[in-house]
Amino acid sequence: MNTRVAVSLRIPGTSPMPELMKLIQDVEAAGFDGAGLLDSQLLCRDTFVTLGQAAAHTSRLALFPAVTNPFSRHVSVLASAIQTVAELAPGRTRVVMGTGYTSASTIGRKPATLAEMRECITALRKLLAGEAVDFHGTPGRLTFASGPPVSIVMAASGPKAIELAGEVADGVMLLVGFHRGIVDAVLTHLEKGARRSGRRLEDLEIVWAVRTGTAASMAEARRLARPTLVHQGIMRVHSRWLEYTGLRIPHFDVPQAVHDIYPDLSHALDWEQAIAATSFVPDEVIAQLADALGLVGTPEHCARRIIDLAGAGVSSLYLMGFQTFVGPEQEMRNFRDEVFPRLKAAGYR
């Protein structure tokens, strides 16, 4: 018997608020299960204000910051914001915590350490449960904490982070790629972490975050994916998982033009500039990375890949469009009109 695949969509939050609310309503109407709001203070509108407005404009959609971090808000402020949104969207609010990549880089600091992640998640869980937390000798608690505590999901890419998520969080959002070989390797680390706190994989919510882009042709989808795939597969920690796909990606010297893109290659303000800057990577390597790390291609191709990974046990997806400063309207429409019907016909919706 097939398991339904839940699908959520990233909303960058870089458009004006009225446009964001219309998009989020359209995402709900299109049949998506959730919407994650990017939390990067210099790139997008305030995440929790946007989530509050989204709660008032939707009735079914799960809502969450994706991802927030331990340093741009004190944990007490973070708990208050989350609990407030949960009152507006009861039963459909969660929080996704990460190390704060662009939230950190755009203000000249480093992302949070795993020790900081552990401390923040531990304190946040207590506050959302109405328990007291020791703040430098002063016990403090969230006076209006009520109802079931909001689920805390940790975003993770590297093995140590994945193990920490398995140990301390209610679930994990994995940005590691989208390939059968990667799935098995990653779950081994997640299970190792879960065992530290006496849990099993079945006790955790497991969400696969996948960089996603659809187009009328495979060639155009891969062209649009270039900045994301080069960033994720050649420049970043996610490339460590490629060994489990059987691929052997050659070494590339990354030109300075790539490093000069603001705020970085994966979040480029000028996407065509970012595409041009990645011309040093051959098309055949991009094609290999696309099917190892992302969900890239025609809607029909993407549907087939989801069905394949669902057969490997993947049951929850968080789709992240390539661009930060252009909304995911195209992916929303293509999933509504072409991908979701194919998943339904295969018994996964």
Distinctive features:
single chain, 349 residues, alpha/beta, TIM Barrel, nine-stranded parallel β-sheet, two-stranded antiparallel ribbon, 11 strands
User: What is the strand content?
Assistant: 15-25%
* CATH-derived topology: TIM Barrel
- Write the element-wise H/E pattern from the N-terminal end onward: EHEHEHEHHEEEHEHEHHHHEHEH
* Count of domain modules: 1
Q: Using the coordinates above, name the CATH class.
A: Alpha Beta
Give a brief rundown of this model:
With 349 residues, the protein is an alpha/beta fold. The chain has helices spanning 17-29, 47-57, 75-88, 101-105, 114-128, 159-168, 180-196, 218-235, 256-259, 271-277, 283-293, 299-310, 329-345, and strands spanning 6-11, 34-37, 62-65, 94-97, 133-135, 138-140, 151-156, 171-174, 205-214, 294-297, 316-321.
Ordered list of secondary-structure elements with their pairings:
Layout: E1 6-11, H1 17-29, E2 34-37, H2 47-57, E3 62-65, H3 75-88, E4 94-97, H4 101-105, H5 114-128, E5 133-135, E6 138-140, E7 151-156, H6 159-168, E8 171-174, H7 180-196, E9 205-214, H8 218-235, H9 256-259, H10 271-277, H11 283-293, E10 294-297, H12 299-310, E11 316-321, H13 329-345
